[in-house]
Design goal:
The longest helix has 25 residues, at 19-43. A 7-stranded mixed β-sheet has the order 7-13-12-11-8-9-10, sandwiched between helices. A 3-stranded mixed β-sheet has the order 1-2-16. It has a 3-stranded antiparallel β-sheet with strand order 3-15-14, with no helix packed on it. The chain has a domain at 2-73 and 159-294 and 331-415: Crotonobetainyl-coa:carnitine coa-transferase, domain 1 (Rossmann fold), CATH 3.40.50.10540. The chain has helices at 19-43, 53-59, 96-106, 112-119, 124-133, 144-149, 151-157, 196-205, 225-228, 242-253, 266-269, 274-280, 305-311, 314-322, 334-357, 367-376; strands at residues 5-8, 49-52, 64-66, 80-84, 87-92, 137-140, 163-169, 187-191, 210-215, 232-236, 257-260, 285-290, 359-366, 399-400, 405-408, 413-415. The radius of gyration is 21 Å and the shape is globular. With 443 residues, the protein is an alpha/beta fold.
């Protein structure tokens, strides 16, 4: 299948790491999984795949272009990097309960300046531990060598990029791939949050899958929702409420793919461990995501792309490369984005396997393992900068989102006879009912 893909475009994102290579390769991986599905159940031959490195780099940033309105802020007012007494630490306070955890440790502060003075009284290690123990999200900046010698860094090194376990026998379903919409008839139940999981389900929706995103009451991610809900329906369920649990179980029983990014063990505590999920939906393609991997000691730690970059040495390497006095992250949230496309590729391979062999699949990925993939490639070779965005890079079609009209960048990949496009615009969380709209025909 590798012979079916070609790469176009020159230049790269500015970074000590090969971020543009990661972008184009991960998108190509997802696209090749679609091409394989088309070959085996559609045309009989592998369709040509063309990946634009430049557009892949842009899609690793933001694909949406609002018309007459602004995207909500991506970060909480207190989120950011702070200098502790012995080095840098990043606090992630976007979720209200994560901000509250930081405030329990550092006190309620009116602004970043006040928070910085409080953080300066702590060592970075002690502050990280205190906030994590309080239920919050923080990461001290380590070097790549420090991470390699850290117990979790060593644990991540032993994990595969994608951990796959063959599932149980499936109930046959008529989901023959169509050349133009290869995932038509596939149902994806999405229990993921910013940003990797939503990137995965957006890709699947782009090739015809019905994606139903489920969020708990009150949850919101205003800074990214217009970007990642393209092509999806978004509903709310409280998995601690008996009626909503029954609805969720009915949805899962009819799902082909289940994407989830709850911390390892969280679904188990809600009564939905892997065995229960398999019993509810025999043959399920079950793809899970974590921040710091699935091994101890940090397997259950809360985390996000920006935190993992601090922990794994990426931000430290950027600082040294730039000759800066503070952490320098990747120019885009590449760990999230790349892991999202790898999740999508894994899900599609699971669909192909189920159609061929009648069995399901369980898979696990993590941001930290994707970080290792990037770091292991070594320093980025000197590449000219990407040509700046032009009018020709934006689709002419108007997308009528819940926030106003917008446009999207042209897709970063072209699969012969199977264009990537979305039938539904981006919409707000909780804007739909928790139900499937497509029908399933058992074979």
């Amino acid at each position: 299948m590798l012979d079916a893909v070609t790469f176009t475009g020159k230049g790269g994102l500015p970074s000590p790491y090969a971020v543009t290579d990661l972008a184009s390769a991960s998108i190509a991986t997802a696209a090749l999984s679609i091409a394989e599905l088309v070959q085996k159940f559609g045309s009989g031959f592998p369709p040509a795949v063309s990946v634009d490195r430049r557009m892949s780099s842009f899609w690793f940033g933001w694909s949406i272009r609002p018309i007459g309105w602004d995207m909500p802020p991506a970060w909480d007012a207190l989120a950011g990097d702070y200098h502790a007494s012995d080095g840098w630490i990043r606090l992630h306070t976007n979720a209200p309960h994560h901000r509250a955890a930081a405030e329990r440790v550092l006190g309620r502060r009116a602004n970043k300046d006040e928070l910085a003075r409080a953080a300066a009284c702590w060592s970075k290690h002690d502050l990280e531990k205190a906030i994590v123990d309080a239920g919050g999200c923080a990461a001290e900046m380590r070097s790549t060598m420090e991470w390699a010698n850290h117990p979790q860094g060593r644990a991540i090194s032993a994990e595969p990029l994608v951990h796959i376990v063959t599932g149980e026998r499936a109930i046959g379903r008529d989901c023959t791939a169509l050349a133009s919409r290869p995932l038509s008839g596939i149902r994806v139940l999405d229990l993921t949050r910013v940003l990797a999981g939503p990137v995965a389900s957006r890709f699947l929706a782009g090739y015809g899958a019905e994606v139903l995103r489920i969020d708990p009451p009150g949850w919101n991610e205003p800074g990214v929702i217009p970007e990642v809900t393209l092509g999806k329906r978004c509903a709310r369920l409280d998995l601690k409420d008996a009626k909503d649990r029954a609805t969720f179980e009915a949805l899962l029983s009819k799902a082909d793919v289940f994407l989830h990014s709850y911390r390892p063990g969280a679904l188990d505590r809600l009564g939905y461990n892997a065995a229960v999920r398999r019993a509810l939906s025999p043959g399920l393609i079950d793809v899970g995501l974590s921040a710091y991997g699935w091994s101890e000691p940090w397997g259950t730690r809360r985390g996000f792309d920006s935190l993992v970059q601090m922990s794994t040495g990426i931000a430290d390497r950027g600082m040294r490369w730039k000759g800066a006095s503070k952490p320098v992250p990747l120019p885009v949230q590449a760990l999230d984005q790349a892991t999202g496309y790898l999740m999508a590729a894994t899900a599609v391979r699971g669909i192909t396997q189920r159609l061929l062999q009648g069995i399901g699949m369980e898979a696990r990925l993590s941001l930290a393992r994707t970080a290792k993939l990037l770091v292991d490639q070594g320093d980025n070779c000197s590449l000219p900068p990407l040509v700046p965005e032009t009018v020709a890079d934006v689709l002419a079609a108007i997308e009528k989102t819940s926030w106003g009209e917008s446009q999207r960048l042209i897709p970063p990949v072209i699969i012969e006879s199977a264009p990537m496009h979305w039938c539904d615009p981006a919409n707000s969380l909780g804007s739909a009912q928790p139900r499937w709209t497509s029908s399933i025909v058992d074979a």
